[in-house]
């Protein structure tokens, strides 16, 4: 019989590892409640102790650039850590490069995390979803649930931290960052980014530019 995972089990594992609540829950479910195995799995993923470091101030780091697709897509991203020593580590620099590549590939992403999305954007998305014809005749309680589900999905589409890592879709960008926090022993924060598409905002003969750029990414 599979053991039911309780809130107390999750709290205990979190206190022992410093990993996030959802990470602890997933680890316990995967090991059928066996705490020792769950701890081992979290350590293998680099998630143990990562959250304990997430509140520390990170003011060092680097600004990484990435140019892709014949110089038609460019990304700048600022990645922060606590010391210049870690900023020079090849693992940290590799993380910055991977995040920049992720941003080039995920053109719907506009914010670092869901928490960074302005309230006016959230309200606009709620207004759009609430007005869609396919839910117009549904009961209010059902309509509310549908809208909430769609909004959560939409906000995650806009958030970099919620994207699946393009080189390993078993983990998210948030989990990738946590792995490097555990590996390097310092807090790491993606502070900001800017994406550039050649010709963006200019009138073009072809209206398929975004489609063209997306196809270039898929082919590389």
Automatic annotation (TrEMBL):
Pfam families: EF_TS
Family stated for the protein in its record: Belongs to the EF-Ts family.
Molecular function per GO: translation elongation factor activity
Protein name: Elongation factor Ts, mitochondrial
Cell location: Cytoplasm; Mitochondrion
Function: Associates with the EF-Tu.GDP complex and induces the exchange of GDP to GTP. It remains bound to the aminoacyl-tRNA.EF-Tu.GTP complex up to the GTP hydrolysis stage on the ribosome.
All copies of domain Translation elongation factor EFTs/EF1B dimerisation, residue ranges: 56-200
PANTHER family noted in UniProt: ELONGATION FACTOR TS, POLYPROTEIN OF EF-TS, CHLOROPLASTIC
Highest taxon of the lineage: Eukaryota
GO cellular component, one term: mitochondrion
BP GO annotations: mitochondrial translational elongation
UniProt xrefs under InterPro entries: EF-Ts_dimer_sf, Transl_elong_EFTs/EF1B, Transl_elong_EFTs/EF1B_dimer, Transl_elong_Ts_CS, UBA-like_sf
Keywords carried by this UniProt record: Cytoplasm, Elongation factor, Mitochondrion, Plastid, Protein biosynthesis
């Amino acid at each position: 019989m599979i053991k039911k995972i309780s809130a107390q089990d999750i709290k205990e594992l979190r206190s022992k590892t410093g990993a996030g609540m959802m990470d602890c829950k997933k680890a316990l479910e995967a090991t059928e409640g066996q705490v020792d195995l769950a701890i081992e799995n979290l350590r293998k993923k680099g998630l143990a102790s990562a959250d304990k470091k997430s509140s520390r101030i990170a003011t060092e780091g680097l600004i990484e650039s990435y140019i892709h697709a014949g110089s038609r897509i460019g990304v700048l991203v600022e990645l922060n850590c606590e010391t210049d020593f870690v900023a020079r580590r090849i693992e940290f620099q590799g993380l910055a490069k991977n995040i920049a590549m992720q941003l080039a590939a995920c053109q719907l992403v506009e914010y670092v995390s869901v928490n960074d999305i302005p309230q006016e954007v959230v309200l606009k998305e709620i207004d759009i979803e609430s007005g869609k014809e396919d839910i117009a005749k549904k009961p209010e309680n059902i309509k509310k649930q549908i809208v909430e589900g769609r909004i959560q999905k939409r906000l995650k589409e806009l958030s970099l931290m919620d994207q699946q890592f393009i080189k390993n879709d078993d983990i998210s960008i948030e989990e990738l960052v946590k792995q490097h926090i555990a590996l390097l022993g310092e807090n790491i924060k993606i502070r900001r980014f800017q994406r550039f598409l050649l010709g963006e905002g200019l009138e073009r003969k072809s209206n398929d530019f975004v489609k063209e750029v997306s196809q270039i990414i898929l082919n590389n």
